TrEMBL record:
Name of this protein: DUF1772 domain-containing protein
Family annotation (Pfam families): Anthrone_oxy
Membrane-crossing segments per the record: 12-34, 55-78, 84-107
Keywords: Membrane, Transmembrane, Transmembrane helix
Amino acid sequence: MATSARVTDALLVLGVTTSGLVAGLFCAFAYAVMPGLHRTDDRTLVTAMQKINVAIVNPVFLLLFFGGLVVAAAAAWLSRGQSIGPWAIAAAVLYLAGLIITIAANIPLNDRLAAASGIDADSARAAFETAWVRWNIVRAVLHTAGFVVLATGLVAGRA
């Protein structure tokens, strides 16, 4: 196997791994974290999400989140002209769409929530929860689809 093929394979496996981890995180928020917080009072949800939003900005998350797009794009570029190429391109586009949703929708909602005072937790929650959950589900679906597409392409390209 040529060196470039090994690099492409390594990037594809790394892309599947990072996209799966990011998809899993967003899905966990959709099916466990937010439904659990929905059952709490306003102040608890607001405080918990404020703390989560600070804690998640860490090197591991940032490496996975932004690195996943870089890896997917590099894999798409290196695999052009191969049977995996269209799969890798589709996965990179889906990953990019999820990243755009995060930057355009979820982060601004997080920033507004961070600025909310604890005194007005009910209106902070009302302005945050429904929209954030909706956009999180969209990005969870996009990242999960990207993961499935890339994993399917990896298997199909090797069959």
